[in-house]
Amino acid sequence: MLYLEHLPCPVLVTSCSGRVLHINRDFKQLVTPESSDNMDYYLPPASRIFLHTYAWPLLLRNHEFNELYMQLQSADGQQIPVMTNARLIEAEGERVVIWLFFVAKERQRFEAELLKARKHAQENAIELTKVNIELQKANAKLSQYAQEAKTKADKFAQLSLTDPLTNLGNRRALTRDVKQWMNTANSESVASLLLIDVDFFKQINDCFGHAEGDEVLRHLAKQLLKSAGKHDTVIRHGGEEFALWLPNLDQEEAKRTAQRVHDHMVQILVGNKPITVSIGIASMAQNRQDTGIFLDLLLAEADAAVYEAKARGRNCTICFSDMD
User: Fold this and answer.
1) pLDDT by residue (tens digit) across 182-203?
2) 187 and 285 in contact (C-beta within 8 Å)?
3) Is 252 a catalytic residue?
4) What pLDDT is recorded for position 76?
5) In what order do the strands lie in the sheet with 64-73?
6) What is the DSSP letter of 320?
7) What is the 3-state secondary structure (H, E, C) of 119-157?
8) β-strand 79-91 against 241-246: which pairing, if any?
9) d(CA 55, CA 68)
10) What is the pTM assigned to this prediction?
């Protein structure tokens, strides 16, 4: 049984009566250099009793067992804890038992290492969980900061498009809305622009003060919003001048909007008298023009029409196309 010398553990081969047939080098080094005819020689008393009352009956019944705790006895009388595997086989026409022994101290060391490693892994898992929670908190804070930054950016963007006195849009907002319309409308689509200028506004400021003048402008903004349609844009163009952008409305429809504006002006009283406004209308087809050029032309024509309305006595509406 030379192959037994190559097994990495102590090996004992016996007959079914316990007679020793062979021991390998590792077994000799573990117990004692002396040899014996019976395996009982290598066991302390308690293990001999366990061997005969439990291990042998189990082996003869099942032809094998695994990892039974036993003890071997060294040459100096020390007891060596071992885990024992045994198997009953046929070898050269004879039934023999091969006993494999694994020193339990080594097993205990390995188990201790495994427990230590498992504990270390659990501690790492706990730390990773803590780190993950902190990362989630940090991510939540970053998301909150990002949302707050976006909200502030949106607010600043909105402020850049808003007239602070009236809360209407400003020239920048008008440019944005005209550009959006030009990106979606076809070349034949017509839009109109109304410029509304408050008549004798300087006299209002001079007679009643700038605070009253500001209040008039705020009231005017509200009345213009009432006059506009849901797709129209109302802006404060500057000073006492306002603009109404009417996408997809031609000149006749723009005139009706202008009349609504005049009608709403009776709601604004200064010194118990309603204010009046002069309105200039410009209408134009898109014709695939550049946004800036298109808007500048509309504003120039509407502005010329406003001056004409002023020249004709104020409190009226003039269309640029109707001017001589």
Assistant:
1) 998 888 899 999 999 999 999 9
2) yes
3) no
4) 80
5) 20-23, 11-15, 94-103, 79-91, 64-73
6) G
7) HHHHHHHHHHHHHHHHHHHHHHHHHHHHHHHHHHHHHHH
8) unpaired
9) 8
10) 0.55
With H, G, I as helix, E, B as strand and everything else as coil, classify residue 250.
coil
For residue 213, the surrounding DSSP H or E stretch is: helix 210-227
Binned at pLDDT 50, 70 and 90, residue 4 comes out as: confident
Beta strands in the chain (DSSP E): 11-15, 20-23, 64-73, 79-91, 94-103, 190-198, 233-238, 241-246, 269-270, 273-274, 277-285, 317-319
Closest CA to 101 of 184, 176, 13, 37: 13
* C-alpha distance from residue 239 to each of 124, 178, 207 (Å): 69, 21, 17
Tokens of 276: 């009046």
The torsion angles phi and psi of 249, rounded to 5 degrees, stand at -110, 130
Q: In this structure, what token pair is assigned to residue 282?
A: 């410009």
User: Do 254 and 281 meet the contact criterion of CB atoms below 8 Å apart?
Assistant: yes
Residue in this structure with the two tokens 């109304």, named with its chain if needed: 194
Q: pLDDT tens-digit profile of 274-303?
A: 999 999 999 999 887 888 899 999 999 999
Cβ(107)–Cβ(124) under 8 Å? no
Of 5, 94, 106, 240, the catalytic one is 240
Q: What is the residue whose two structure tokens read 């808007």? A: 295
